[in-house]
Amino acid sequence: MGIQERKQREKERRRQEILTAAREVFSVKGFNSATMEEIASKAELSPGTLYLYFKNKEELHTSLSIDILAHLGSEIEKVVDQDISVEEKVGRFRDVFINVYEYDSSILINLFHLQSGETLHNLSDEVMKELKKYSSRAHRAIIAVVKEGIDKGVFTEDHPVALADVLWATYAGVVLWVDSKRLLNDEKDFVKPTLKLAFDLIIKGLKAE
Fold first, then answer.
1. N or C: which end of the chain has fewer CB within 10 A?
2. Structural domains in the chain?
3. What would the mean pLDDT of 31-46 be, rounded to a whole number?
4. How far apart are CA 38 and CA 174, in angstroms?
């Protein structure tokens, strides 16, 4: 292994250690209360070293969101080529969405806020590039299944991109809305059953008459 490759591996290892520390701090303190100094301490680094990897707290938190988005896109892509009906594929999307929510709901919620918020303006070009890359990856996989359903005459002949947007917006909307209700009313987390109901309705709505 060459010196340059060894340095790159060390840099990536350190980056992953920072992300692990950040996830722990954010989960305990929340985004607003957590500080870069606390994350640096958790990662056993100086704050100055931390800023060599992430320019601010927003970018660090966004990198966690990108990781979960990359995982989400990978799981969605696995559904596309499965030998099952298109209705079942949409059902599998629902299952993937629920599993990702259960894996780390706070980071997923941040991802959805991020996609519609001012935080995007505080990100580096490199992080924005990664965010766009993995967003497009997940979106293309959903579009592929919707288009397959349209081509087979199973789904209504509307624009596949618009229909894919409805699927994604439903996921984001349910997660954000039910989470806000839970916080306001201190209720049980109803995201999972609400997503199941929403996607049952979507599958019915997608079908061609």
1. C
2. 1-53 (1.10.10.60), 56-206 (1.10.357.10)
3. 91
4. 32
